[in-house]
Amino acid sequence: MRFLRNKFFIGVLCIILGLVIGFVAIPQVQNKGTTDLVQAVRLKQDVSQGEEITEDMVETVTISQKLIPSGTVDSVTSFASRFAVTQLFAGDYLTSGKLADAQSTQDSLALATAKGMKVISITLPSLASSVSGQLQPGDVVTVLSLLKNNTVDQSQTLNPQVQTAEDTTADTSSTDATPAASETALKPETLLYPELQYIEVCSISASDGSDAIVSKTPSEDSKNNLPVTISLYVTESQALRLAELEQSGVMHLVFVARGADAAPFITDDIRVLNLEVE
């Protein structure tokens, strides 16, 4: 074991180990890390639903495969003459589910007619009533209504204390009704009509009629355009109810589902925008 005490031998051994680490071990570690890197196409600006995506709107980046969704586009030429099927934002990675050809991005009204559906727009009284502007076309929502008067008919109410129309008539005709009871009867109640429980969103518009845009981190060049109205795909009975509530109540939307998760709530035969959101 004397050679272990030989300084020359130890020096040569250290040099050999250094060469092995530098030219064998380190490159293997680096190569292992680079094998996880892939090319991905990312948006540089916001894109509205149905808008054609051009090369100046995107950039190609190298990123770990673990950080991007499946189906991400890896080449700019992969989406030539493609259109956004839903509202997209700067920083979004383009995927096959977010792109479509021109034939798949028909006018939303034409799509409704093809499915035997109608389109109606209702007013959004506040940002809160539109789920803080986070709704997208194709989402499924529930419409709640806060009536301005005491008109209560065949509907579900969120308050188990709500009286029926017959109870209200009986109370108002009673001779011993007190002022306090009358005030309670006239108090608006939030209603959930069965036919308005699951409705598909067609589009969300700002005050100037353009698509509403609400980003959590808006840039100086792309400011938020808050929603004022929302268009919904409806049947005739749903349209009649919504038109009535537009005049007699204040409506509030509740988000239910998006993408494939919406399937249990609206059947494919009447669902218009069957979009798969990554």
**How would you spell out the order of helices and strands?**
HEEEEHEEEHHEEEHE
Class based on secondary structure composition and strand pairing? alpha+beta
Can you count the beta strands? 11
Could you tell me how far the N terminus lies from the C terminus, measured between alpha carbons in angstroms? Answer: 65 Å
Q: Which segments are poorly predicted (pLDDT under 50) over 5 or more consecutive residues?
A: 150-184
Taken as a percent bin, the fraction of beta residues is: 15-25%
> Mean pLDDT, rounded to whole units?
75
Radius of gyration: 30 Å
- The number of distinct helices, counting runs of at least 4 residues, comes to 5
Q: For this entry, what is the oligomeric state of its chains?
A: single chain
Question: In words, what does this structure look like?
Answer:
- By secondary structure, the protein is an alpha+beta fold.
- Among the domains are: 37-104, Type Iii Antifreeze Protein Isoform Hplc 12, CATH 3.90.1210.10; 108-149 and 188-262, no CATH class.
- Helix content is 23%, strand content 21%.
- The chain is built from 5 helices and 11 strands.
- The protein has helices spanning 7-34, 108-114, 165-173, 179-185, 236-248; strands spanning 37-43, 58-64, 83-84, 99-100, 118-123, 140-147, 156-157, 190-192, 199-205, 229-234, 249-257.
- Strands 5, 6, 7, 8, 9, 10 and 11 form a 7-stranded antiparallel beta sheet that branches. The protein has a two-stranded antiparallel sheet with strand order 1-2.
- Residues 150-184 have low confidence and may be disordered.
